[in-house]
Design goal:
With about 290 residues, the protein is mainly β. The protein folds into two domains: about 35-155, Sandwich (Immunoglobulin-like); about 160-289, Beta Barrel (Lipocalin). Helix content is about 10%, strand content about 45%. It has helices at about 1-20, 25-30, 210, and strands spanning about 35-40, 45-50, 55-60, 70-75, 85-90, 95, 105-110, 120-130, 135, 150-155, 160-165, 170, 185-190, 195-200, 220-225, 230-235, 245-250, 255-270, 275-289. The strands form three sheets. An eight-stranded antiparallel β-barrel has the order 11-13-14-15-16-17-18-19. Strands 5-7-3-1-9 form a five-stranded mixed β-sheet, with no helix packed on it. The radius of gyration is 32 Å and the shape is elongated. InterPro entries: CalX-like_sf.
Amino acid sequence: MRKYTYILTCLTALLLVWVVVACEKGDIDRTFEGPYFVRFTDTTLTYKESYNQPITIRVHNAGPQIDQPVTINYTVSGTAREGKDYVFQTTKGTVTIPAKQSFGEIKLKLINNANNILESQTVVLTLTGVTPNSLQVGLGKEGIIGKTMTFTIQDDCLFSGSYTGARQNGAYVNLLQITPATASRANIDISSLDCKTYTIANWNIGLEDIFGFTASKPTFTFVDNLDNSLTILPQSSAELGGDTLSGSGSWNPQNRQISLNLRWKALFRTQAGKDTTILVTFPFTFTPQ
C-alpha cells in the first residue's frame, strides 16, 4: 500500500512540475497592451423636463491619456424631439476629448413643455467612430459595452419646476407693522405627484424676521382648479408654529408666471403681553427660471 502511495505522490509532483514548465513566463506576466477604447461614462440618465440647468453627458477614454485630441462621432435617435423636448448646447454628432485629458462632454438643455401628460421620451446616443484609429469604440464583443447611452426625459406637471419668487408689500390688519419692502429669491421649488395638488418649498421670502419661525424651507400646498385659477386650502404646520395659511392665485399661460395671494392667520402677542389674532395677506409672484 505504501508503494502505491509513494508512486501516486511522485506522479503528482511530476504533474505540477510539468504545469509550471508549460506556462511560459510571458503567459504569467503578460500585461494588457490594447487596443484601448472610448465609451460613454454613463449608459443611462434620467431627468425631469422641468430641470432647467445644462446637463452634461460624458464620454471618456478608458486608456492612457494621449498627446492629441480624440474626436468621437455619434448618432442621435429616440422618441424625444429635438427643438421641442431638448436642444444641444454642444456640436451635435461630435464630441472631443482634449489632448492629455480623459473626458469629453456633450451638453443638453431640456425644454419644459409640461402639459400634465406624465409620459417619458428618450434621447439615444450611439458612438460610431473615433480618431485616432489606434482607439476603438466600446468594449467587449462588437464593442457593445459603453457604446450607447439612453437619456430619459420624464414629463412633469404643468407648474412643476424651479422659480424665482418675489414678495410685494403685504396688507395687514390689527397690530402687525411691516416695513414697506419687496424681496426676491431664486431656486423656489414647486412639485406635484398628480398634477392637481402642488407643493411649494423655500417660498418664505423675507418673512423669517417678521414671524420668527425656525424652518429654513417651509412648505405649503395649492390646488390647480383647471381654469388658470389656484386655491390655497386652509392648512397649518408645526414648522410655521401652527399658524394657518390659505388664499388664492392664478397662472398666466403666456409667461407661465404664478401669482399667489397668501393669507396668513397667526397668534400675535402685543408689547403689553396680550394675545391677539392677526390676518396678513402677502402677494407673491413666481417666475420660471
